[in-house]
Amino acid sequence: MATKSRLTYSFGASRAEGNAGMREILGGKGAGLHEMTRIGIPVPPGFTIPTAVCNYFYAHRRRYPSGLENAVNLALRKVENNLGRRFGDAANPLLVSVRSGARESMPGMMDTVLNLGLNDDTVAGLAARTNNPRFAYDSYRRFVQMYADVVLGLKSTDKAAADPLTQILDAKKAQRGVRLDNELTAVDLRDLVRAYKREIKARLGKEFPADPYEQLWGAIGAVFGSWHNDRAIAYRELYHIPHHWGTAVNVQAMVFGNLGDHCATGVTFTRDPSSGEKSFYGEFLLNAQGEDVVAGIRTPRTIGELEQTMRKAFGELRRVCRLLEKHFREMQDIEFTIENHKLWLLQTRTGKRTGFAALRIAVDMVGERIINKQEALLRVEPDQLNQLLRPIFDRQGKQRAEHAGDLLGRGLPAGPGAASGRIVFHAEDAVAWNRRGERVVLCRIETSPDDIRGMDAAQGILTARGGMTSHAALVARQMGKVCIAGCEALQIDYAVGKLNVGASELREGDWISIDGSSGEVFRGEIQTRPSEILQVLLTHSLDKRQSKIYRQFAQLMKWADQTRKLGVRTNADQPDQAAIAKAFGSEGIGLCRTEHMFFQGDRIQAVREMILADDEAGRRRALAKLLPMQRQDFKAILDIMGRLPVTIRTLDPPLHEFLPKTEAEILELAQVMGVAVATLRHKVNVLQEFNPMLGHRGCRLGISYPEITEMQAQAIFEAACELRREGKHPFPEVMIPLVGSRQELREQRLIVDRVAQRTMKAYGVKVHYAVGTMIELPRACMVADEIAEEAEFFSFGTNDLTQTCLGLSRDDAGKFLPSYVLQGLLPDDPFVSIDRDGVGALMRIAVAKGRQRRKGLEMGICGEHGGEPRSIEFCHQLGLDYVSCSPYRVAIAKLAAAQAALRK
Amino acid sequence: MATKSRLTYSFGASRAEGNAGMREILGGKGAGLHEMTRIGIPVPPGFTIPTAVCNYFYAHRRRYPSGLENAVNLALRKVENNLGRRFGDAANPLLVSVRSGARESMPGMMDTVLNLGLNDDTVAGLAARTNNPRFAYDSYRRFVQMYADVVLGLKSTDKAAADPLTQILDAKKAQRGVRLDNELTAVDLRDLVRAYKREIKARLGKEFPADPYEQLWGAIGAVFGSWHNDRAIAYRELYHIPHHWGTAVNVQAMVFGNLGDHCATGVTFTRDPSSGEKSFYGEFLLNAQGEDVVAGIRTPRTIGELEQTMRKAFGELRRVCRLLEKHFREMQDIEFTIENHKLWLLQTRTGKRTGFAALRIAVDMVGERIINKQEALLRVEPDQLNQLLRPIFDRQGKQRAEHAGDLLGRGLPAGPGAASGRIVFHAEDAVAWNRRGERVVLCRIETSPDDIRGMDAAQGILTARGGMTSHAALVARQMGKVCIAGCEALQIDYAVGKLNVGASELREGDWISIDGSSGEVFRGEIQTRPSEILQVLLTHSLDKRQSKIYRQFAQLMKWADQTRKLGVRTNADQPDQAAIAKAFGSEGIGLCRTEHMFFQGDRIQAVREMILADDEAGRRRALAKLLPMQRQDFKAILDIMGRLPVTIRTLDPPLHEFLPKTEAEILELAQVMGVAVATLRHKVNVLQEFNPMLGHRGCRLGISYPEITEMQAQAIFEAACELRREGKHPFPEVMIPLVGSRQELREQRLIVDRVAQRTMKAYGVKVHYAVGTMIELPRACMVADEIAEEAEFFSFGTNDLTQTCLGLSRDDAGKFLPSYVLQGLLPDDPFVSIDRDGVGALMRIAVAKGRQRRKGLEMGICGEHGGEPRSIEFCHQLGLDYVSCSPYRVAIAKLAAAQAALRK
Question: Per-residue pLDDT averaged across B695-700, rounded?
């Protein structure tokens, strides 16, 4: 670390060495504290150790840069002078909090220590100064417990049990016959601290540190260390936060919400983070510290009630909130403490919100002239739009079992949407059950950052304790998960693996349903119906004008359409999918997989006849049966899409996919088809492949059996010609898969062109059409210039291109790919987001070579990456013409494309 | 075709419009005729229609350029004037031959018509002019038969039967009680012509053309048409002759070797094409036409005998042969005809030869100062060296069956080497049997160009008729096949599927052995022993000085070593392979596959224990058993290779390859290992993969189980340290497979480096070593710059790179790849010769990126392409440092590398 770099940044008394623009250096929390101080908002004084120190710490075997100790001491002196208290002073002690703060908020992921500076001497001074021994010992008790957990690493060995100090606390409460912490006396609390220290000594073999400076450096080290704890790493993986950013450390004077009944602590949002409504929204606890709110140990009161209790502080809080939203031009998530009627701000940051809220806030703020349309487009995470499309419960629908749908209880509607799943009680179980295909609802007394993977794996989260700003609620909203928090009627017994709601008892594995929009918990599995937006768009059961959320959605989509450069098509194999896509404003079909039609109804019979045929004549007979069915499919899809392009891919999967695998299935099919078992078994054996992914599939089938391509082309052009005769303007694009050389494409396009000419002549009409190819092999990228001579369009098949480029079978990679991503061997799961350095580099070559050889070559992507925002951004950068994604992701893709255009 | 292009090139009477440098225009035969005419050698006059006309013909639906007819007529006039005869003149007719002639010789592949211009009128004139009615009608009979076959397409419908006209001829001979054609009288022959014409009319429904001009254009069209017949296409595929070259047509005045006993026709080579010996070598038939020699219908006499029959013509032939070899500075293959003691040359071309002959001629000609060393290196096809290493029969060895090894008969030693195989009688059977893994010997009365694929599929070829210059002999020598021609004791009955040699009868499927160096045919399968060169190099059973062929071989290798830029290493997994490679002058080991060692003896037991272990500790226990065995292997190999680099690849194949597949095998192994069947079956199921090629293998294993890499590294460095302690200088290069990102390589090299440091410290020695990677994934090529930061060397694994680049599983491609190559969809089998446009383009990117990031990065190739001459040329062009190939291909690779350097 360069010696000139600053090692601390102080703030306090309306002066700050940093500002809001210094997130990279100070972290989000630090930058917010400095900025608030600067604009005159009451913030307890303190200082920030910048992120560069964190990186130094990891680059130098957990040592600090020389000079840090000195800089920290100097910064601490400023705080002391500012407040007139001294750190470690027995008479008038300064207590501090030590908190992490990365560039992006990672709620609850890293460590925090409060009330630091207390020991047996200073606690007495605190008691004397505040004239409140109970408060002083309560703070002391909290500090020792938190420090033991965070810095000393004291954990329970039994996963189901509470940690050792909580057990001691619970025992004390039981002994004293009380339910809540604040019912314990000062003496109880002093005894507890002693008992805690004994337990720590017994378990760790050393004394709890009494020296405030030793405490301080322990806490700083713990905060830096927490940057690389498992849950923080997992969080960063999930949200694509680079590991090299590092965290800052904020050391700040304590203010106390637990000094008595004129004290409170709470969290507010400048708008409702669930609905986005512009209302002053928040929760608080009287006589408590902030951790109590976030951890969900006591269910807090809504912010409105604060007005009755502390009118002046409430007014001040409201003023400050308005000021902060205006200053930052964004919805803020604010932590505050009221110490004897005096308001202190401890944090402000951009508030996490549901998709509903994100949409509404963005559109509203444009209406309020706070932001412009471009900013609004950037304010909604594309994936959040998914939430708007999520089904809601259809209580009228048929239920699965008796009593299914019985209302069990109510909690806080913390994450909108409807979810059914089987009950699990532990995050690890959620992950394991999900992996084997089960839908689960994670039911917890409260959640902690350790549960993050389990929350991701669950359909929904249900907690017994905690408010709208509890960990469960915050994380669920960000993940777009259905969540009900603080369902107080819920009693969970982890040990037995059961939960009780009123008179009902449910066990692990039982079905439960939760409505995260209403807060209702139901027994059993409940059918769902489309979301409000889908009711407008698809079922027309709601009028556009009636639905506010639809109008907001339509507004955002309009702005996105005006902004984006990329076209958005859809992958649809069936007319109903095409209709959905059209309703979402898809600009064509980018991939229609003809083989999906092969599996429908009795078609599979004709397909199998074709495969079992001994010669071309036999294949042609079977194909003739398929022809009218395919024609009908294509006609319906082409009709729905009007003049828009419909890209139809010729047969792609290896033929063995259409035959049975097991001996039993072979026996059965042989009987059904009336062929000899031996014949069928022989064919299955002959067609078997070692590596089907790299086998006889794609255009290789059409080259071995040109009559297949011929039949499919005929079905396409007969369908198109029929429509043309009806005065319509269908636009089929015939796409040849798995092409690796110009000659392959040429062979296939000759067939398509011949059939097209013949069919158009027979019908006496002209149909506008194109022939092109998938680009899904590395070789195709390397010879894209040659292929472009035969292709009117390229469509990147990034699923297969990823498999071949990385030599990675998607079906097999599950065994090691997750740990690969975790270990940082690959930046992302390449099947989720395009591997830019590998697959992306091949695509870049193909784009350049293709365009160089054929001006105006149309290029798109039809792999699943076509619906993933970061991949869409890459496609925009590549200069593709369009992305194609699943029908329900069309809106997401449009927004992502608009954002890509704005970011360019 | 540009109108200015010449449409014919005339030659005759010491003047020619073309020369030897015009092969591309005139074809090889044409260029030879023009050049011979130019230098005063007696050549019947004629003209050449250039190859461009052939390409015009195919580009314009088999039409000719305007003006061709006129040009042909003019050229014909010149020939008429030159000889004082007229085409179609009943009194003094000019007869011509019409022959194909491509840039490269394609012996027998395309069509020829002789004696053209005969009809019922001109035959009488010919009879009168030559005063030899028998000759005239013999010529007429030959012409009609040949024209019917070549131009009119008259074929037998029964594959086993002779063609219809031959049946008529055979019937006539039987009726007249004679054995040979030349025992028939003029009247017999006239009757035959009439019978032929009747048969043609009956079968084809039209008269045989009497107009000589109609005959001529029919023949020209047939020759052009034959460029695209199946056997010509197959030949070009086999020898990589581009289809777009086209053929020329040579129209030339006939001279006659069948005018009587002062006439002869024959073929000579300026040196022995089998051994390379500098001796005047050839064969002739008295009173015959050239086709009789080539077709092998009569077994010809050796050229020496000509001296007794026609001393003057013999002397002239000898003089002309010397002149031609000197003129062309190459061994020549010459066709001649003697018409009434007058010698005419009909063709001269570079002679095909065996590998033995190629080597000897090249080395001898340098000694004779005809060519220089560079030319000598270019005169031997690298793959021909294979013949020198081919085993010879070990008659002392143990035979398989009673009577095996009994001498059945003798024929001409037409293709050296020893071959055993099962008898097949038809080319298609040879192909089919070979495909299912059988070794076969193709036994034919005579071979024809239709048999070429069958000859390629057979171990050896045995014919009953034909000489050293028969079709079978020529093609076998070129292919490097073992061949015995003209084994007159052999009687083959195609219909029954049996052959008789003396008293012995053998049936299809029986074993037979042929020695193509001695001409001996043996019953049964015979064991073999190493070739002479291998006896010198490997068994030391022969002294270097005793072996002439070894001295020639060593000479050529010395020149190759002086010339080549590419290093040549070998792929060897075991000490004996390393020793062979060393003997051949390998400059290191480019690929030592450690897993091959895993299968030896009882090691597989420890490997399976490792796989079945539940945890790392269990794996480590099993690995500890493997450690001493691997150390021992590595020590032996490193010891043999001295200071040369030994590239050792860490474990590559997926673990399921070491486990059983079928239920029966699982049961058996469970018993042997003493584990529960269910446990084993479960493990087998868990490890099963959909696409093993793209699965959990390569460095992915070492990353999942670092202890495997650790054990292997430990074995390598313990072996190296032990040798170093013994005063030796081992040089291990540790190679990490299937790397796709820099981070993967880094993880693995950290393990290797750590183990290396630890081991060297423990042994108290320093060992020179390197760590590098395979480049075998497209992604690795795209990020080769990043990978180069961790890699001291790259080794292209072109087997896997081909599979991933083309999306083509080598195990599965067999079903469609051959037809792909045939249809021209791919220029070559990409697993045989590097696909330059796809795989090669990726390699080019990797080379550039690798070198750009790390100066002096060592680069080689260890895929099977490393031993294939055209791929080696590409590696030279890429600027790789070395190729690595199988031990027996080291010499081939060295020669190919030298040629690449000379061609650059």
Answer: 94
B435 min Cα distance to partner chain A (Å): 15
What is the residue type of B634? Answer: F
pLDDT at A3: 43
* CB spacing of A778 vs B691 below 8 angstroms: no
pLDDT at A519 over 90: no
From the list A426, A471, A656, A876, the catalytic residue is A471
Work out how many CB contacts closer than 8 A connect A with B: 175
| B729 vs B720: CA distance, rounded Å | 8
Quote the CA–CA distance of B861 and B569 in Å, as a whole number.
9
Q: Which amino acid is at A184?
A: L
Question: Which residue is closest to B823 within chain A, CA to CA?
Answer: A743
Contact status, residue B272 vs residue B302, Cβ threshold 8 Å: no
Give the number of other Cβ atoms within 10 Å of residue A191's Cβ. 17
Distance from the A323 Cα atom to the nearest Cα atom in chain B, whole angstroms: 47
SS3 of B787, please? helix
- Say if residue A2's pLDDT is above 60: no
Burial of B848 (0-12, 13-18, 19+ CB in 10 A): middle
Average pLDDT, chain A: 90
Report the C-alpha gap between B141 and B137 in whole angstroms: 6
Calpha distance A344→A351 (Å, rounded): 19
Distance CA A322, CA B489 (A): 112
Token readout for A250 is 């904020």
pLDDT surpassing 50 at residue B580: yes
Sign of torsion over alpha carbons B685, B690, B693, B699:
negative
| pLDDT at position B411 over 90 | no
* Angstroms from B657 CA to nearest CA on chain A: 12
**Looking at the partner chain, which of B778, B786, B800 has a beta carbon nearest the beta carbon of A842?**
B778
Q: How far apart are CA B818 and CA B870, in angstroms?
A: 19
* pLDDT value at B405 more than 60: yes
The C-alpha R_g of chain A, in whole angstroms, comes to 32
Please tell me which residue of chain A has the smallest CA distance to B743. A825
Does the pLDDT value for residue B128 go beyond 50? yes
CB contact under 8 A, B779 and A689: no
> Which residues of chain A have a CB within 8 Å of the CB of B703?
816, 820, 823, 825
- Indicate the pTM of the whole model: 0.81
pLDDT in tens, A97-118: 999 999 987 876 778 899 999 9
Express as a percent the part of chain B with pLDDT over 70.
Answer: 96
Q: Degrees (nearest 5) of the Cα angle B89, B255, B29? A: 115
Cβ separation of B806 and A747 shorter than 8 Å? no
Taking an 8 Å cut-off on Cβ atoms, the answer to whether A837 and B779 are in contact is yes
Residue A160 has pLDDT above 60, yes or no: no
Q: What is the pLDDT of residue A780?
A: 98
Looking at residue A194, the DSSP 8-state letter turns out to be H
Residue A860 has pLDDT above 90, yes or no: yes
Using a CB-CB distance cutoff of 8 angstroms, which residues of chain B are in contact with residue A820?
Answer: 700, 703
pLDDT digits (tens, 9 = 90+) for B763-822: 999 999 999 999 999 999 999 999 999 999 999 999 999 999 999 998 888 778 877 876
- Do the chains contact at B778 and A805, CB–CB below 8 Å? yes
Instruction: Decide: residue A309, CB within 10 A, 0-12 exposed, 13-18 middle, 19+ buried.
Output: middle
Among the residues of B395-545, which ranges form H helices? 427-435, 452-457, 471-479, 532-534
Contacts of B803 in chain A (CB under 8 A): 691, 694
**How many whole angstroms from its chain centre is CA B333?**
19
State the Cα–Cα distance between residues A886 and A596, nearest whole angstrom.
15
Instruction: Note whether A611 and A657 are within 8 A (CB).
Output: no
Tell me how far apart the alpha carbons of residues B228 and A904 are, in angstroms, rounded to a whole number.
56
Per-residue model confidence (pLDDT) at position B395: 64
So what's the pLDDT on residue B403?
67
Longest CA span, chain A: 102
